[in-house]
Amino acid sequence: MDPGCPPTHNVFENTYSPARLRIVKTCAVAVGEVTGEISISGDGDFTLNIKPHPENASMLSIGSIILRHRTLHIEVVPADQEKVLGPIGGVCPGDVVKITGVFVIDTDHGMHSELHPAYKIEILSRRQNATWPQCIINIPPELKREAG
Question: Residue 105 has what pLDDT?
């Protein structure tokens, strides 16, 4: 069964500064609740954190436990954002999601674990009716114009 990762010879093809990321698994799936802030980072990645369900708790590294308050970090690279976020209308805190992507450890930011890049996000349940980009901080000006 294909969990949704595209076949590629380079899983970091569109990832900024991939040398810092150590691959644990090239295609992994995690289910959890979106927590905290959702933002667009300086490199343009759409970022969020999830509190993984118990069956995915083993995906949390020591850096994730200590520095990210027991959350798994998720990043959708700019090249994939329309494909990943468009069909679901974005995500908001409290949503329960199923995310597929490359499972890595970020060696430059406290050895926390991530799905980066994330290739697919499925909404299992929504906490609120807000959608893209209402739940995002650090929205670039061009997206604010589109939303408003």
Answer: 95
